[in-house]
Amino acid sequence: MQIKKKIIITEKEKQRIKFLLQKIIEEKKEKFSISDFDTLYGFLNKREVNSLKKLLKINPFEYGFKGEYLGIQEVPKDLVEIEGQRFKADNEEGFQEIGIRYLPQSAYKAYKRINDRMFKEIGRRVLVTSGYRSPAYQLFLFAYYLDMYDFDIQKTIERVAVPGYSEHSVADYVAIDFITEEGVPQDKDERLFEGTEEYKWLLENAKKYGFGESYPLNNKLGVMYEPWHWRYVGD
C-alpha cells in the first residue's frame, strides 16, 4: 500500500468543512448513514467536496493508528432497519429516541440472539446506538469530530476512523456501538459503560455469539478505550 504524506488543512478548508457540516446537519445527517459518496457529494459544492476528499488522503498510521486497513466497500444490499429504540433520558418525555439504525442480516441475527440471551439471564438488553455506516457517512463523521477537536488530526483518529479503517463500514463483520436502556454511555456523561451489568455480561458471553471487543482497555491499536464497541466476527 502506498504511504501517504501527512495532511495539512488550511484555514479556508477548515471554514469550508464547518459550513458543509452545518448544511448536512440541517438536512438531518442520519439520512446519509447508508448513502454512497456520490449522494453525499451531490449535496455539496465543488470546493466543499474537494475539502472532504482531502480528508480521505489522511494516512492514520502516521498518527499512531495500528489497526487494520479494511478497504472502501460498497453499501450491502441486505441491511436491516432497526426502529423504535429508545433509552431513558432526563427530559420531559423521560426517554430519547435513537432513530433508525442499520445492520447487515448476519450481524442483526447475531445481535438478536445475544440480546435475547442477555435478557433471559440478567433481565437487561443493549440497544444499537451505531451499527452499519457507509464509508461516505464515515467521512462525514470524521469531519464532524475533526471540527469538534479543533482540527487536531491526532486526537480525532483516536476517536473515529478514517474511511477505509472503520469497523462500522464492513459488510460482513460490522461493529456495533451499544447503549443500555438506562442510557449508558452518552457524550459528556461521566457514567461508564464498563461499570454496567450489560458490559460484564458481554465480557463473559459475547464470544459465544460471535462478538469481540475491538478496543479494550490499554489496547495497542492507537484507539481510545471503547467498552461499548463490539465487532461481529462470526461463529
How would you describe this protein?
By secondary structure, the protein is of the alpha+beta class. It is 34% helix and 16% strand. A four-stranded antiparallel sheet has the order 5-6-8-7. A two-stranded antiparallel ribbon has the order 1-4. The protein starts with 10 loop residues before the first helix and ends with a strand. The model has no long low-confidence stretch (mean pLDDT 93).
Layout of strands and helices, then pairs:
Layout: H1 11-26, H2 37-41, H3 46-55, E1 79-82, E2 86-88, E3 95-97, E4 101-104, H4 105-122, E5 126-130, H5 135-148, H6 153-159, E6 175-180, H7 197-205, E7 211-215, E8 226-232
Helix pairs in contact: 1-3, 1-5, 5-6
CATH architectural category:
2-Layer Sandwich
Shape, please?
globular
- How does the helix and strand content classify structurally? alpha+beta
> How widely separated are the two ends?
30 Å
CATH topology: Muramoyl-pentapeptide Carboxypeptidase, domain 2
Mean pLDDT: 93
The major beta sheet can be summarized as: 4 strands, antiparallel
Number of domains: 1
How many runs of DSSP E, i.e. beta strands?
A: 8
Which percent range fits the helix content?
Answer: 25-40%
Widest sheet, order of strands: 5-6-8-7
- Tally of individual helices: 7
Top CATH class: Alpha Beta
Low-confidence parts, pLDDT < 50 over ≥5 residues?
none
Q: Report the portion of residues in β strands.
A: 15-25%
SSE string: HHHEEEEHEHHEHEE
Evaluate the radius of gyration.
18 Å
